[in-house]
């Protein structure tokens, strides 16, 4: 008898003539952490939806706990011990922690009468299984994303999960939160559970994976032991090409400041921040959650006005009262959360690209000139290498990387003098990340002044020629271009972030 808890054999799936999966097979053993990796759109999530009964395969078979299925239902997959935690977590925002953990179990038991004692007992038992304490009466909508993840895990455990699929679970987490989640995943394995971990964050894959299945364009590239892979091999198998991030070197000779920040303060978010950004600069700002980095960016973009301090743009006082005033002055910002703050997911690429420049594409009577709009959108689509059926495709249908390119293209159309990028590659696959880096560096070489906010140290080292590290709202350290090139740069940054050696 096979020792596999799951075998998906020769799975094929198409959508409207587009092959999402071509003859893909996957096997998972008990107490195994199996990682699925590949660029956005490579077929990882589609395979999970076939196994969990969301999509019916065109052909192939699924074997769970020795039982064969030509297609699976959602209810059937749950009976077999399959649980999936999607990126949106699918929690009930209006319910508390205990209700979210216990509700699905109570429904599965067809319970007509339920006591609050039952609900809290179920929740307490599942939180204890992952060694986490939490206020069971807290509203889920008030929790951090990290704690929402833990609630979703407990909900899955309450349903006697044997194999847990986690789809990009670390996208919105800080490094500390990621470490905590990965530790819990390892503990689940020790207790006999199989975990299928879907990610394109290669460092996380190499940290936890027993085995890895790599996808590209709907095909399975191969199965590998986690021990035999390194970041370079993973990148190559995922993309079909060698990915190397070139180190940015500022070449602009004009050293005059474009943006100057002097003693900027907004308590309790940040205090006495001073910074100069020149043409051709990519100035990095980093820090842990709560360091004030995003709050500072929002002040620069006309939100969260400062309490004191001054800002100068090309030598003139700059104090925007709104994002509209910021854009008109020459400052644009790519926000931290593209899906809720940056993109109109239900609108077309064309509408998104031109959303911030409606005056530029309108005639005298304020009527949009569609021909002009479509030309701007098509030029941006080509320049940023957005993979889409055309400019009329809905942005919500695109991969994360292509959505981010569209949002970036929107702000470039405003022709800014200063562009703020807040976490520009969160949830972006490695191929798109490389392309975004290349474009950011090209903009800087053309003389644009950029501020790059990120907690990904490799991203900062590859793209920035100067870096500020914030801790608890204050500058904890500054690194010059030569500092960033040193072998100790990563450790220096981490030290400033955690120890707070205030400058």
Q: Cα-atom Rg, whole angstroms?
A: 24 Å
Distance between the termini: 64 Å
Shape: globular
Total domains: 2
Q: Quote the CATH topology of the largest domain.
A: Rossmann fold
Q: What is the strand content?
A: 15-25%
Based on the structure given, which CATH architecture of the largest domain is correct?
Answer: 3-Layer(aba) Sandwich
User: Structural class, judged by helices and strands?
Assistant: alpha/beta
Question: Low-confidence parts, pLDDT < 50 over ≥5 residues?
Answer: none
State the major sheet.
Answer: 6 strands, mixed
The number of distinct β-strands equals 20
Main sheet strand line-up: 6-7-8-3-9-10
| DSSP summary: helix tally | 18
Question: What does it look like?
Answer:
The structure is a single chain. By secondary structure, the protein is an alpha/beta fold. It has two domains: 6-239, P-loop containing nucleotide triphosphate hydrolases (Rossmann fold); 257-341 and 406-498, Rossmann fold, CATH 3.40.50. Helix content is 35%, strand content 24%. The chain is built from 18 helices and 20 strands. The chain has helices spanning 44-51, 74-79, 97-108, 116-129, 145-158, 175-190, 202-208, 231-239, 293-300, 323-329, 338-342, 349-353, 370-383, 400-412, 430-445, 457-463, 481-485, 489-499; strands at residues 6-15, 18-28, 33-37, 59-64, 67-69, 82-85, 163-167, 194-198, 211-216, 219-225, 257-266, 270-278, 282-286, 308-313, 316-317, 331-334, 418-422, 449-453, 466-471, 474-479. The strands form four sheets. A six-stranded mixed beta sheet has the order 6-7-8-3-9-10, sandwiched between helices. A six-stranded mixed beta sheet has the order 16-17-18-13-19-20, sandwiched between helices. A hairpin with a 2-residue loop joins β19 (466-471) and β20. α3 (97-108) crosses α4 (116-129), α3 (97-108) runs parallel beside α5 (145-158) and α4 packs across α5 (145-158). The mean pLDDT is 91. Residues 6-242, 246-497 form the ABC transporter domain. InterPro entries: AAA+_ATPase, ABC_carbohydrate_import_ATPase, ABC_transporter-like_ATP-bd, ABC_transporter-like_CS, P-loop_NTPase. GO terms for molecular function: ATP binding; ATP hydrolysis activity. Keywords: ATP-binding, Cell membrane, Membrane, Nucleotide-binding, Repeat, Sugar transport, Translocase, Transport. It comes from Christensenella hongkongensis.
């Amino acid at each position: 008898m096979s020792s596999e808890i799951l075998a998906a054999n020769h799975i094929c799936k198409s959508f409207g003539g587009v092959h999402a999966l071509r003859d893909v097979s996957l096997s998972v053993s008990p107490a195994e952490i199996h990682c699925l990796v590949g660029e956005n759109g490579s077929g990882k999530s589609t395979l999970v939806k076939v196994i969990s009964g969301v999509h019916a395969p065109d052909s192939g078979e699924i074997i769970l706990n020795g039982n064969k299925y030509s297609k699976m239902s959602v209810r059937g997959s749950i009976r077999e011990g399959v649980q999936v935690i999607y990126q949106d977590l699918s929690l009930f925002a209006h319910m508390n922690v205990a209700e979210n953990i216990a509700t699905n179990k109570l429904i599965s038991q067809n319970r007509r009468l339920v006591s609050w004692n039952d609900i809290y007992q179920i929740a307490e038992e599942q939180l204890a299984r992952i060694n986490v304490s939490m206020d069971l009466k807290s509203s889920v909508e008030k929790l951090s994303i990290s704690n929402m993840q833990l609630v979703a895990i407990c909900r899955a455990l309450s349903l006697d999960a044997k194999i847990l699929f986690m789809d990009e679970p670390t996208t919105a987490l800080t490094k500390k939160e990621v470490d905590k989640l990965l530790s819990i995943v390892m503990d689940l394995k020790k207790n006999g559970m199989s975990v299928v971990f879907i990610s394109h964050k290669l460092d996380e894959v190499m940290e936890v994976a027993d085995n890895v299945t790599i996808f590209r364009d709907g095909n399975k590239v191969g199965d590998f032991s986690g021990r035999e892979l390194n970041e370079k091999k993973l990148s190559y198998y995922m993309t079909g090409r060698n990915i190397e991030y070139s180190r940015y070197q500022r070449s602009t000779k004009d050293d005059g400041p474009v943006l100057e920040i002097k003693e900027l303060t907004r308590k309790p978010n940040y205090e006495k921040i001073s910074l100069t950004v020149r043409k051709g600069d990519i100035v990095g700002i980093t820090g842990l959650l709560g360091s004030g980095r995003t709050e500072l960016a929002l002040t620069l973009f006309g939100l969260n006005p400062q309490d004191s301090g001054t800002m100068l743009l090309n030598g003139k006082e700059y104090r925007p009262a709104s994002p509209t005033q910021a854009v008109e002055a020459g400052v644009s910002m790519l926000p931290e959360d593209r899906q809720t703050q940056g993109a109109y997911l239900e609108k077309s690429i064309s509408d998104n690209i031109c959303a911030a420049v409606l005056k530029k594409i309108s005639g005298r009577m304020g009527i949009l000139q569609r021909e002009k709009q479509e030309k701007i959108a098509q030029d941006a689509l080509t320049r940023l290498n957005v993979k889409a059926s055309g400019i009329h495709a809905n942005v919500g249908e695109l991969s994360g990387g292509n959505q981010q390119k569209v949002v970036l293209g929107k702000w470039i159309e405003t022709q800014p003098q200063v562009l703020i990028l807040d976490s520009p590659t969160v949830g972006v696959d490695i191929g798109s990340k490389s392309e975004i880096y290349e474009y950011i560096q090209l903009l800087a070489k053309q003389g644009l002044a950029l501020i790059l906010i990120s907690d990904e140290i490799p991203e900062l080292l590859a793209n920035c020629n100067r870096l500020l590290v914030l801790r608890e709202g204050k500058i904890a350290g500054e690194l010059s271009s030569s500092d960033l090139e040193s072998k100790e740069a990563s450790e220096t940054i981490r030290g400033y972030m955690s120890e707070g050696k205030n400058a």
